Amino acid sequence: QVDLVESGGGFMQAGGSLTLSCAASGSIFSGNVMAWYRQAPGKQRELVAFITRQRSTNYADSVKGRFTISRDNAKNTVYLQMNSLKPEDTAAYYCNTIPNLGSWGQGTQVTVSS
Predict the structure, then answer these.
(1) DSSP-derived pairing of the beta strands 91-97 and 108-113
(2) Distance CA 22, CA 36 (A)
(3) CB 107 within 8 Å of CB 6
(4) Which among 46, 79, 85, 95 has most CB atoms closer than 10 A?
(5) How far is 5 from 24, CA to CA, in rounded Å?
(6) What DSSP character marks residue 87?
(7) Cα–Cα distance measured from residue 52 to residue 70, given in angstroms and rounded to the nearest whole number
(8) How far is Cα 40 from Cα 76, in angstroms, rounded to an integer?
(9) 39 to each of 14, 43, 56, 75, 95, how far by Cα in Å?
(10) Contact 6/108 with Cβ under 8 angstroms?
(11) Is the pLDDT of residue 1 over 80?
(12) Please, which pLDDT band fits residue 30 given cuts at 50, 70 and 90?
């Protein structure tokens, strides 16, 4: 069991916004690049965005300009602000490190209707 707890998912209409949160243990969060991944039904898990401890960020082309990743180093928490949601954003969202730990939390489901 890995100490990563994702929350904030839900059902949203296209064009809406959601903010995901991921609380991690200090041993995972401290010094690591933190990332959000997602996995849609029948597809492989993909990297959505990552953020370094110094808050440099990088995004998949599919979410660039719509999603914003951030981190609170004092709270060991990473966030994903998702705007202008599209049906193709529907997936289970997971946080982890880069490289990933090999174990995953339960994730949080995001469903976007057209």
Answers:
(1) antiparallel
(2) 9
(3) yes
(4) 95
(5) 7
(6) G
(7) 9
(8) 26
(9) 18, 6, 24, 26, 11
(10) yes
(11) no
(12) confident
